[in-house]
Design brief:
The complex is a heterodimer. Chain A is of the alpha/beta class. Chain A has two domains: about 190 residues, Periplasmic binding protein-like II (D-Maltodextrin-Binding Protein, domain 2, 3-Layer(aba) Sandwich); about 220 residues, Periplasmic binding protein-like II (D-Maltodextrin-Binding Protein, domain 2). Chain A has 19 helices and ten strands. In chain A, the strands form two sheets. In chain A, strands 1, 2, 3, 6, 7, 8, 9 and 10 form an eight-stranded mixed beta sheet that branches. Chain B is mostly helical. Chain B is built from 14 helices and no strands. Chain B starts with a helix and ends in a 6-residue tail after the last helix. The chains are: A alpha/beta, B mainly alpha. Chains A and B meet through β1, α2, β2, α4 and α11 of A and α6 of B. Chain B: It is found in: Cell membrane. Chain B: One of its GO terms (biological process) is transmembrane transport.
């Protein structure tokens, strides 16, 4: 009898403390300010109701976030239990032992449902270190009405040569329509990313197998010259300072015949509340130069990772499983429609009949599937990554290199000068880094 | 005739002053106007100045998403605390430099100013590690001390300049009347330098309020001030300019109101000693 009482009391005490623990647990998540992430914050109460775990958000602008989480993880500051990071950081941080491996996710989570390209890009040596919240590639968004007026038909997978022809046909100074809008803004994640994938589609690469920089090769000269000539002839004025937002704004106001950029932009340009051309947008795969097998499309994911220094590892894993699950996608679809669910992360999403009706769904999937971060270029390379090179030195080098290219777009120097400087910068930095 | 020239010159000066004033104020005005537009109107080309349907939707969204009062309270504590602590340290320092200068006073003043030339990011990691060791990451106390140290050279320089305008004979007279060091600073020097001290406090409060590097890098969920509040609405992938403008308007409103009510004091302090 006495033993029973003791056991009963112990059990009650354990249950009470477990409940109290669950209620007292709060995790802090650092994230970026974009539509999908903000939407996720709105559903946090559902997660807290299910698990009893509280969530505090630290939302920051992308570049600030990158600096903030990098400082914290390298010093083991322990400010965040979950960090929103990208495909560039994940393999590098995973290799350094800074992230908790996500190798014990539950069966219901169905880790094999994550799109293979995303899973590979967020892993190091086969171990997943971050779960994709949403993924993206890049593709062509074009004005169907202007194409029709020009008497042209956009192929599913056009070449750069066709893109130039179409830009010439749609360009109309009198009506303030630019044939094409592309990123020229300095920054490795802005114009740097775009010119890198463009170079891939002309057969260029950042480094050869011995890590020797390749800006002195003819493929780079051809790619950058093509880009500059195309934009000088048919792009908007001041394109050297245009990034994603500037081009989005131009496209939404009907001032671009074509725009090649992140697949995630498709939901913005087809939203009639914000876009004046919502009913006249078509999609196609990013182009390649004639005869080159690689296309100018990238691969990116915003993913949730757990820093190794956290004291709340279990609660953090529970949140990641919830936020990147199939159930979460259904929750958003139920409340806000299928066009607003986070795209590009799970195979099952693209098998859902309702989602297949979303106009940009199939092209987004095709673009993601056409991107292989482990084989990004025509010639073999020693690195992983399509619009970036997954080494810690890349962000610094590519920021400087893209500044040189932007200066060339703005007419402050020639393409040849920009490439010479890019080569010199990269050689110096790579030698200093011991390559 | 002379009268006509004077009035014409006066009119030109007034027009020029208004033009310069409006040019300086225009970005703030544009931010406030944009905060009442829809996202589509915010990016319209040509830009819409006043002819749009005014909406409070952005303020509603910002209020719903963020705990504005918590950010505001943190800003008040951090900016106020660092300014007051700075003035407490700077008044005796400036007194000694103004009234009992040594051979090295000018060198010390220049050295203090030279610390402002160090890029903040150069000491980010050491300060971050110190904060981890002391358990002060994401705390208002750390930011009060750090912002005080950052602004201290400016506070000392400003007070030193104001104190130099006060005749030393007055302090000597107070000493002859038996005033100790404490009485001299508190009851003689400070009342005479009130306009200067007030403008120093106001200017440093504004500097601390707007400081964005340390307040973004050393805070997370608990001590984040209004700079972090604004940063949470900036996005390179998506057009949220109207919401960003609403957040910016809410962040600058307290300091605009403070500046408006204290402008006389501020101008008086800044021109203190300019005309003898």
């Amino acid at each position: 009898m006495r033993l029973k009482r003791v056991l009963g009391a112990t059990t009650a005490l354990t249950l009470c403390s477990a409940a109290a623990f669950a209620q007292d647990t709060t995790i802090t998540i650092a994230t970026v300010n974009n539509g999908d992430m903000v939407r996720m914050q709105g559903y946090t109460d559902e997660f807290t109701a299910q698990t009893g775990i509280g969530v505090e958000w630290v939302t920051l602008e992308e570049n600030v976030l990158r600096q903030r989480v990098t400082t914290d993880i390298t010093t083991r500051g322990g400010q965040f239990d979950i960090m929103t990071i990208g495909m560039y950081e994940t393999p590098i941080w995973g290799a350094n032992g800074w992230l908790v491996p996500l190798d014990d996710l539950s069966d219901e989570y169905d880790v094999n449902d994550i799109l293979p390209a995303m899973r590979d890009g967020l892993s190091h040596e086969g171990t997943l270190y971050a779960a994709p919240f949403y993924g993206e590639s890049s593709m062509i968004m074009y004005r169907t009405d202007l194409m029709e007026e020009a008497g042209l038909e956009m192929p599913d997978a056009p070449t750069w040569q066709f893109i130039r022809e179409a830009a010439a046909a749609m360009d109309n100074d009198e009506e303030d329509i630019n044939g094409i809008c592309l990123r020229g803004k300095a920054g490795w994640g802005e114009g740097g990313a775009f010119i890198t994938v463009t170079a891939n589609s002309f057969g260029a690469r950042w480094f050869d197998e011995n890590w020797d920089p390749q800006f002195d090769q003819p493929e780079w000269a051809e790619a950058v010259t093509f880009f500059k000539t195309l934009m000088d002839d048919y792009g908007p004025a001041g394109y050297a300072t245009n990034g994603f937002n500037e081009n989005l704004s131009l496209f939404q106001q009907g001032k671009c015949g074509m725009w090649i950029d992140a697949t995630v932009a498709a939901s913005f340009v087809t939203n009639p509340e914000d876009s004046t051309v919502a009913d006249h947008v078509g999609f196609a795969l990013a182009p390649n130069s004639e005869g080159v097998e690689k296309r100018a499309n990238w691969l990116w994911a915003w993913a949730l990772a757990i820093p190794a220094g956290t004291q709340q590892q279990d609660a953090a894993k529970q949140f990641i499983e919830w936020a990147t699950s199939k159930d979460y996608i259904e929750l958003v679809a139920e409340n806000e429609g299928w066009a607003n669910v986070p795209p590009g992360a799970r195979t099952s999403l693209y098998e859902t009949a309702e989602y297949q009706e979303v106009p940009f769904a199939q092209k987004t999937l095709d673009s993601i599937n056409a991107a292989d971060p482990t084989d990004p270029t025509v010639e073999p390379v020693p690195y992983v990554g399509i619009q970036f090179v997954a080494i810690p030195e890349f962000a610094g080098i590519a920021s400087q290199v893209s500044q040189e290219f932007s200066a060339a777009y703005a007419g402050q120097q020639t393409v040849e000068e920009a490439l010479e400087k890019a080569q010199a910068i990269t050689v110096e930095e790579m030698e200093a880094a011991g390559y | 005739m002379a009268r006509a020239v004077t009035s014409r010159r006066k009119a030109i000066n007034t027009a020029a002053a208004w033009t310069v004033g409006l040019l300086i104020f225009f970005p703030i005005l544009w931010t406030i106007l944009t905060s009442f537009k829809t996202e589509a109107q915010a990016i319209a080309d040509p830009p819409i100045f006043l002819g749009f349907d005014w909406t409070l939707e952005n303020y509603r969204v910002v209020q719903e998403r963020s705990d504005y009062m918590s950010f505001l309270w943190n800003s008040v504590i951090i900016a106020g605390g660092s300014t007051l602590l700075g003035v407490l340290i700077a008044v005796p320092a400036a007194w000694s430099m103004a009234f009992v200068p040594s051979k090295r006073t000018k060198d010390i003043l220049l050295w203090m100013l030279s610390t402002k030339m160090l890029p903040a990011v150069g000491v980010l990691y050491p300060i971050y590690l110190i904060c981890i060791e002391l358990g002060l990451l994401d705390s208002r106390a750390a930011l009060v001390v750090i912002l005080m140290l950052i602004n201290l050279p400016i506070i000392v320089w400003m007070l030193y300049t104001y104190f130099r305008e006060i005749p030393g004979e007055i302090l000597e007279a107070s000493r002859m009347d038996g005033a100790g060091l404490k009485e001299e600073i508190l009851h003689v020097l400070t009342p005479m330098a009130i306009p200067g001290i007030a403008s120093t406090i106001l200017l440093n409060f504004i500097l601390a309020w707007n400081e964005a590097f340390w307040t973004l890098n050393l805070t997370a969920a608990n001590a984040a001030p209004l700079t972090a509040f604004i940063a949470s609405y900036s996005s390179p992938e998506g057009l949220f300019y109207a919401k960003l403008s609403a957040a910016s308007t809410m962040a600058i409103a307290p300091i605009l109101i403070l500046g408006w009510f204290s402008q006389k004091q501020l101008v008086r302090g800044l021109t203190f000693g300019a005309v003898k």
